[in-house]
From TrEMBL:
This is DNA-binding protein HU-beta. SMART domains: BHL. Transmembrane segments: none annotated. It comes from Sporolactobacillus nakayamae. Pfam families: Bac_DNA_binding. It comes from the Bacteria.
Length: 91
């Protein structure tokens, strides 16, 4: 499922126009991204938790020269599924 398919399904189920549905979904996603950019969690009971995870710095190798390089630490988004979500996928 892609974003357009999600918009179509939500609009169909709720009876709201596709344009309004797209606006609501975009704003919801923007709010999750804004929350994560502040280093906070976005938790949806039963669905899951979006959180920021830290990747430690590590050494790597430049494939063209073979030179050893240091890859800096970074923050990445992560998702942990809730129990209701896990149970729905199991069935």
């Amino acid at each position: 499922m892609n974003k357009n398919e999600l918009i179509n399904k939500v609009a169909e189920k709720t009876g709201i126009s596709k344009k309004e549905t797209e606006s609501v979904i975009n704003e919801a996603l923007d709010q999750v991204m804004d929350t994560l950019s502040k280093g906070e969690k976005a938790q949806f009971v039963g669905f899951g938790t979006f959180e920021v995870r830290q990747r430690a710095s590590r050494t790597g190798r430049n494939p063209q020269t073979g030179e050893t390089i240091t890859i800096p630490s970074t923050s990445v988004p992560g998702f942990r599924a809730g129990n209701k979500f896990k149970d729905a996928v199991k069935k």
